[in-house]
Amino acid sequence: MLRPERMSKVSVTGSKGVMPTVIETVHGLNLVHLSDYDGSWEGFDNGNPIEGADDASQKLVTVRALESTLELSADEAEPGTLGDNWEDRIEEIRTRVNELDDQRAEVREELRQVDEKITRVAPFAELGIDLDLLSGYDSVEIVVGEGPQDQIEAAVDAADDIDAFELFTGGDVVAIVAAPTDGAGSDPLGDALVGIEFTRHPVPETEQTPSAYVDELEERKRELEYEIEDIDAELEEIKLAEASFLLRVEEKLTIDVQRAEAPLQFATTDRAFIAEGWIPSDEYERLVATLDDAVGDSVEIEELERASYDRHGGSHHETVADDEQPTADTEDDGKQQKAVTDGGSTVTMDDQPPTIQKNPSAAKPFETLVQAVNRPKYNELDPTIFMFLTFPLFFGFMISDVGYGLLYVLVGFYMYQSFDSPGITSLGGVAMWCGGFTIFFGILFGEIFGIHELGYILFGDAGAPMGDKGLSPATLDFALAWLIVSLLFGIIHLNIGYILDFVENIQHGHGLWGALTHSGSWMLMLNGIWIWVFTPQAADVKPEFLFTTFDGAAFDLGFDGFPMMTLVELPIAGGFELTLPFLLVIIGLVLLALGDPVELAEFAIPFAHGVSYARIAAVLLAKGGMAFVVNLLVFGGIQTPEGNRPFLAPWTGYTAEDGQVMFEGLFHMGDGAVAIGAFIVGVLVLVVGHIVVLLLGITSAGLQGIRLEYVEFFGKFYEGGGKNYEPFGTDRNHSED
Question: CB neighbours (10 Å) of residue 622?
Answer without folding.
Answer: 18
